[in-house]
């Protein structure tokens, strides 16, 4: 029985609506306190309640954005696979990306919720398993040509039958991973979380009656739909479009890979068209199936309306056209997609932020840093028998500058804001690594009238390892975190091994199975957020304070902001602005910055190789992208990057935009 929220008295409806959020949060607490793997303990998990059709009743208050919009697909996959063969006490597992999942590590435990013998719906607990097999530790294989090289694909599979655990099936799954004990433990933790949800729903049935609870399942979805339509209907109709980029298709030579997003607001609906994105999947794992791309659409849009709860009612208002199967945003079997989170997902979300900045400029935010995963796996020499270890690390970084406010520093990625910063003590206990630094990265915030948030620098030394390799899943080494409305980019992502030593090696932002030895130093930065507004319009005193705080160097204050800062007493963090020199510096930059974007890029690359220009000179002043290890010019990438600066930055230089004002250059096309 489905029903409108108007069919219930307002008090009962409000109590039940919030009760469902609370139940999902209870599931999260159960997983957090009983999981086995450090990855899930660091909150890489999400949960949901679904009705008997598989539609989402409610998400929790702290779910990962990448999982949003996909859990109903998983419930429907179980329904389609087992139909009437679903019984009280059953539990199913599924991670199939081709049936609405995200990537194979995100493994969903689905438990049908029964009251007596009547199926009410499904409770679902999703967790990122640290390893699901495949060719590399952590199952993030950059070089995978198909999903078989990524890990175990689990189509909907029964793992508990009428309350009895099917140990043979569970062991079969766990034995195809590098951490079988963790997998069994996490599977049990997720199953128990789903059981908590069923118990709580049954308790509500006993209190309010079966008909009221079944009616409320549909009512909360109708409520979200109505509320969302009201918010959309109050906005202007129109069509807007933009594009962002993945760094490279390794099978097609250098050059940025476009992700194109077209947004249409028509009355009380919003529609996204991604069909003009790169038409083929790329020769790497930075592809997304429909579930991952849809999740990015939902998460990016939902962030514009934080007050609206999230369930399938939202999906009735927000529709998507991903175009034909086989593209980078709509990958088909057997395309590898483990890196979707660092590839299309992150680019789609930031594109949506830019599009909505045209509709609601008061909420504008520039590009945020790119999610990264560093995975080091091998044998732990600290223990007898050299037990297998996996060190699975992700970074905090900077969010984009906002309209009138600087961006947040050292914050979780938009992929999953609630991802915990993993405690170093726990990492060092579980793996043979020693953290050498974790600090804010100076000059990482994209310059702008509002400055982007700060990224961080992290380094680790391997202490006692054997047969160990490192893999890295990231992007924005070339399509660097961009600014908005005249703001400038941040810094590139990329990993160094033994930086500053004689045997230093630059590995970049996308690689797998690079060998490591005891004593090797692995270091990387996370980008900051892009700047918003012309950096020459930033208050010089704010720039001076940024220098005092260690956010901006004296050199980049002059080069990026045109502010000449003099040191008074570094120990006391006392600095002052030379106002006369600042006026002259800003006038010089205004007169030349468009010309600098026309300089022969090979000339600039040669100066970088000779040490006459640094990385930020190339990115922010000349718009030139090179291989940051060798200095080799990436000519096609540079052309695309300069075109991006000429579209996102140059037209706004010398101008200001306030909430409600028209853009100098609009993304509106109709």
UniProtKB/TrEMBL annotation:
EC number: 3.5.2.14
Single GO cellular component term: cytosol
Pfam families to which the protein is assigned, alphabetical: Hydantoinase_B
Domain Hydantoinase B/oxoprolinase, residue spans: 9-535
UniProt keyword annotations, A-Z: Hydrolase
Keyword check for Hydrolase: yes
Any one of the GO BP annotations: glutathione metabolic process
Protein name (record): N-methylhydantoinase B
GO terms assigned for molecular function: 5-oxoprolinase (ATP-hydrolyzing) activity; N-methylhydantoinase (ATP-hydrolyzing) activity
Keyword Hydrolase: yes
InterPro entries assigned: Hydantoinase_B, Oxoprolinase-like
Organism: Hansschlegelia beijingensis
């Amino acid at each position: 029985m489905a029903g409108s929220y108007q069919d219930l008295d307002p008090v009962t409806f409000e109590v039940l609506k919030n009760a469902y959020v609370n139940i999902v949060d209870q599931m999260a607490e159960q997983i957090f306190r009983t999981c086995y793997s450090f990855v899930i303990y660091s909150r890489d998990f999400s949960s949901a309640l679904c009705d008997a059709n598989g539609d989402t009743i409610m998400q929790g208050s702290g779910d990962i954005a990448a999982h949003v919009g996909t859990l109903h697909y998983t419930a429907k996959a179980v329904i389609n696979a087992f139909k009437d063969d679903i019984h009280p006490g059953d539990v199913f597992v599924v991670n199939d990306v081709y049936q609405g999942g995200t990537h194979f590590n995100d493994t969903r435990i689905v438990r049908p919720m029964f009251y007596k013998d009547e199926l009410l719906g499904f409770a679902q607990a999703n967790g990122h398993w640290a390893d699901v097999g495949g060719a590399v530790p952590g199952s993030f294989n950059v070089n995978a040509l198909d999903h078989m090289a990524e890990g175990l694909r689990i189509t909907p599979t029964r793992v508990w039958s009428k309350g009895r655990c099917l140990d043979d099936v569970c062991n079969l799954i766990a034995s195809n991973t590098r951490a079988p004990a963790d997998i069994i433990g996490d599977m049990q933790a997720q199953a128990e979380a789903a059981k908590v949800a069923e118990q709580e729903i049954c308790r509500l049935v006993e209190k309010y009656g079966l008909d009221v609870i079944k009616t409320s399942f549909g009512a909360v979805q109708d409520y979200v739909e109505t509320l969302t339509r009201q918010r959309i209907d109050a906005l202007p109709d129109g069509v807007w479009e933009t594009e962002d980029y993945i760094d490279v298709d390794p099978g097609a030579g250098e050059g940025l890979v476009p992700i194109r997003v077209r947004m249409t607001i028509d009355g009380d609906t919003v529609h996204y068209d991604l069909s003009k994105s790169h038409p083929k999947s790329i020769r790497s794992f930075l592809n997304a199936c429909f579930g991952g791309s849809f999740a990015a659409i939902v998460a990016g849009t939902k962030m514009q309306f934080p007050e609206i709860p999230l369930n399938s009612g939202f999906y009735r208002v927000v529709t998507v056209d991903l175009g034909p199967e086989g593209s980078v945003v709509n990958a088909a079997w057997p395309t590898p997609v483990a890196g979707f989170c660092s590839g299309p997902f992150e680019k789609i979300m930031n594109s949506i932020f830019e599009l909505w900045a045209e509709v609601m400029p008061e909420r504008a935010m520039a590009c945020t840093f790119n999610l990264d995963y560093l995975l080091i796996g091998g044998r732990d020499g600290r223990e007898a028998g050299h037990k297998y270890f996996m060190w699975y690390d992700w970074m905090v970084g900077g969010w984009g500058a906002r309209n009138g406010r600087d961006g947040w520093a050292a914050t979780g990625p938009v992929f999953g804001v609630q991802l915990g910063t993993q405690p170093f003590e726990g990492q060092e206990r579980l793996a043979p690594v020693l953290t050498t630094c974790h600090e804010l990265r100076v000059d990482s915030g994209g310059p702008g009238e509002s400055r982007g948030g700060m990224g961080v620098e992290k380094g680790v030394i391997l202490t006692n390892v054997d047969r160990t390799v490192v893999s890295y899943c990231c992007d924005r080494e070339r399509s660097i975190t961009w600014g908005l409305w005249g703001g400038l980019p941040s810094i590139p992502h990329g990993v160094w091994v033994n930086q500053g030593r004689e045997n230093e090696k630059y590995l970049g932002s996308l690689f797998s199975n690079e060998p490591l030895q005891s004593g090797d130093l692995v270091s990387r930065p996370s980008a900051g957020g892009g700047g918003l507004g012309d950096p020459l319009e930033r208050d010089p005193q704010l720039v001076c304070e940024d220098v005092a705080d260690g956010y901006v160097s004296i050199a980049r204050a002059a080069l990026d902001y045109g502010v000449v800062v003099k040191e008074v007493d570094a120990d006391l963090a006392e600095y002052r602005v030379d106002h006369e020199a600042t006026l002259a510096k800003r006038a010089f930059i205004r007169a030349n910055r468009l010309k600098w974007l026309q300089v022969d890029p090979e000339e600039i690359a040669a100066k970088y190789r000779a040490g006459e220009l640094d990385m930020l000179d190339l990115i922010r002043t000349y718009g030139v992208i090179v291989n940051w290890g060798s200095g080799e010019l990436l000519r096609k990438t540079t052309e695309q990057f300069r075109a991006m600066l000429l579209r996102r930055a140059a037209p706004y230089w010398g101008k200001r935009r306030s909430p409600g004002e028209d853009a100098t250059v609009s993304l509106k096309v109709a």
